Amino acid sequence: MRIASSRSRLGFTLVELLVVIAIIGVLIALLLPAVQAAREAARRSQCSNNLKQMGLALHNFHDTFGRFPPGASDNSAPFGKGYTSPGGHSWMAYSMPFLELGNAYDSCDFPNRSFYDSNIETAIGNTNFPVFGCPSSALEQEFSSQTPKTMVADYIGIAGHVDGYGSVSAVNDTSDTAFGVSATNGVLAKQSKNTFASITDGSSNTIVVSEIGDWVYVSGGTRKDVRSGTTHGFAAGYQRNTGSRRVHNCVTLRHIINPGSAIEYTTDTSDGVSELGYNSPLRSAHPGGVMILVGDASVRFLTESVDTSSMARLANRTDGLVVSQF
């Protein structure tokens, strides 16, 4: 009589293996959104820190010179020294010494040179300055398309707003409308010399800088990178050519935040939504809105649900219409 020997079962059955794989898949599905949210929170925190540094730099500039830098300047006094080319510089260029970028600023010799100058490309060309870039932005172009090839910033100064959001006749300066309409009722406008005293609505009630670091979907569904420095870089300011005046790196508000529907890509006076225009909408890759810098150097999150009238009040430093909560 033979007695059958029992043998220990080794490993998993196919059913057990499939169950384990399914459990792991469920855990990954549950944890992945949390991991992604944590990463976005870290990126948003870094973006907030960038804006905070810019705010402190603008305040230190004011302490040093008794005014804020212009949003965009040309080559005339007091900002430039009459160099031949009319292309001046942006508020970001003027802020560099107060952002621990003094050596780069000195190498550029901004007061004596246009943003077209080859010396600027030698000094800061193809150089990334993290303070001017949002880590959440997925935009592909890092440097300007034309020389000098300097960094394209994900942030933009607020030059003001246009009453009626589409009324060209209400613009403060109607002579510079080749690429949109330009206002000067904000803190960082072209040729501006604003002080804290000129922000009569209160520094805590006025937007100074915002994000602009995400795609815009224009008519036809095509996505466009219309950051203001895409062509000439973050240091470019007021380009006062006859018949082709452009204001770089500061924006006159005319659109809602993160427009969901396609808008017209154009450089004419009716809109100015392009990389050369100065009416492109505020936008960011952060879900639900944009990070903004307020005049008191605080950083806040402005939701995309804010209406255009509230945005106008926040952009205008002197209209007497204060938005208490935003």
UniProtKB/TrEMBL annotation:
InterPro entries: DUF1559, N_methyl_site, Pilin-like, Pre_pil_HX9DG_C. Pfam families: N_methyl (PF07963), SBP_bac_10 (PF07596). It comes from the Bacteria. Residues 36-308 form the DUF1559 domain. PANTHER family: GENERAL SECRETION PATHWAY PROTEIN G, TYPE II SECRETION SYSTEM PROTEIN H. This is DUF1559 domain-containing protein.
